[in-house]
Design the sequence.
């Protein structure tokens, strides 16, 4: 998916991007740079990007802010933030001209605190306006159907202007989706973390990897239970309360990865190492059985009748000797993320939201990482956060630590 802002994105998102860049483009450019800029624009209009980019770069080298904006627009999808930051440092711009571009790249640590506050307040106003209908709908559910309106909160984490624009779009699409908007799930106000501090990878052929340290600090400060990180380029993933998406993620991709939060397993061939741990007879997941003999236990676990499901062989365990069976007949979003979510799967998500304390919080995962580093104080802080969310394994770990000492209790 291109990082360029799609013309169908909301007017609100477009307005804020314009507001972000307008100060940088207000200075009249030198005549030679302006002529070069016009040549670049004409080449781009003809679709000759390979000709347009060096012309934009030539104009940008003179300090033309409009050309700088064009270079970033064309290169953000193919060039790392670190490389763009280094390039931007060598462009002769006044401080007030440079600031919007630093914000665009998520380089918040290079901005004055007052400017960081100003930019992020603009985004927060937009997010509040966009998500108000979701909160109103869920509040109506609370008053009319006596349902929990926010059984689980996700904490969005953003860095660049593109990730902020994309989150605005995803928020709008979420509230328009009849299935997703029916979930008793809410999003906290997004938190911005400097893109170089977050240090997310940008290799399209690989899963995105980000530095866990700033996210751990966020959890320690806020007590967030589930993270949704919209940053970097590459493959999406879900890992123990940490939902990682590329900053250009679509709603179907978000929906697919969100399903893993509820324990759903991919219905395409799993990698060998993953399949070896997942494809175990007797293991009960929401969407897959690994032996037909597990059917009675499955029905009891999810409070279903035999007529509610149709066992259908899938290739999840293709690289093992085990055969996996999904519980619906039609292909689902867990095989191809663009496909629809089966009604049964939605029902099972809603069922789990009635007991959200059973879903692993990200603090429990970060406590595990702290243990790996022999950071016992950090382990205890994070485990306490996980325990406060009601997660039984965290409560048990703290009880054992209280009785035996932290190091002896942690296994």
Sequence:
């Amino acid at each position: 998916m291109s990082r360029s802002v799609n013309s169908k994105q909301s007017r609100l998102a477009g307005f804020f991007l314009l507001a972000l860049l307008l100060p940088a483009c207000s200075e009249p450019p030198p005549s030679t740079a302006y002529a070069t800029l016009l040549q670049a624009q004409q080449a781009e209009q003809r679709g000759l990007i390979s000709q347009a980019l060096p012309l934009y770069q030539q104009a940008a080298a003179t300090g033309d802010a409009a050309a700088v904006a064009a270079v970033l627009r064309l290169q953000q999808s193919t060039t790392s933030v670190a490389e763009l930051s280094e390039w931007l440092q060598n462009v002769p711009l006044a401080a007030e001209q440079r600031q919007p571009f630093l914000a665009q790249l998520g380089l918040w640590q290079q901005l004055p605190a007052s400017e960081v506050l100003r930019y992020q307040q603009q985004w927060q106003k937009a997010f509040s306006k966009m998500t108000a209908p979701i909160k109103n709908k869920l509040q109506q559910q609370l008053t009319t159907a006596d349902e929990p309106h926010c059984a689980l909160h996700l904490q969005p984490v953003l860095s660049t202007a593109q990730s902020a624009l994309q989150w605005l779009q995803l928020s709008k699409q979420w509230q328009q989706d009849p299935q997703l908007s029916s979930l008793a799930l809410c999003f906290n106000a997004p938190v911005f973390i400097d893109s170089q501090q977050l240090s997310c990878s940008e290799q399209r052929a690989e899963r995105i990897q980000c530095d866990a340290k700033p996210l751990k600090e966020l959890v320690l400060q806020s007590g967030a239970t589930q993270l949704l990180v919209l940053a970097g380029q590459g493959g999406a993933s879900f890992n123990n309360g940490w939902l990682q998406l590329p900053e250009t993620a679509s709603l179907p991709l978000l929906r697919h990865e969100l399903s893993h939060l509820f324990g759903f397993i991919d219905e395409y061939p799993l990698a060998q190492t993953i399949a070896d741990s997942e494809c175990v007879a007797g293991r009960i997941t929401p969407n897959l059985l690994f032996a037909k003999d597990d059917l009675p236990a499955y029905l009891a676990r999810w409070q279903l009748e035999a007529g509610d499901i149709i066992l259908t062989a899938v290739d999840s365990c293709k690289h093992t000797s085990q055969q996996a069976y999904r519980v619906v007949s039609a292909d689902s979003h867990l095989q191809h993320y663009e496909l629809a979510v089966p009604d049964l799967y939605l029902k099972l998500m809603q069922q789990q939201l009635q007991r959200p304390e059973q879903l692993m919080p990200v603090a429990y995962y970060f406590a595990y990482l702290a243990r790996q580093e022999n950071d016992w104080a950090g382990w205890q802080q994070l485990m306490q956060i996980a325990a406060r969310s009601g997660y039984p394994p965290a409560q048990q770990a703290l009880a054992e630590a209280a009785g035996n000492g932290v190091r002896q209790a942690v296994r």
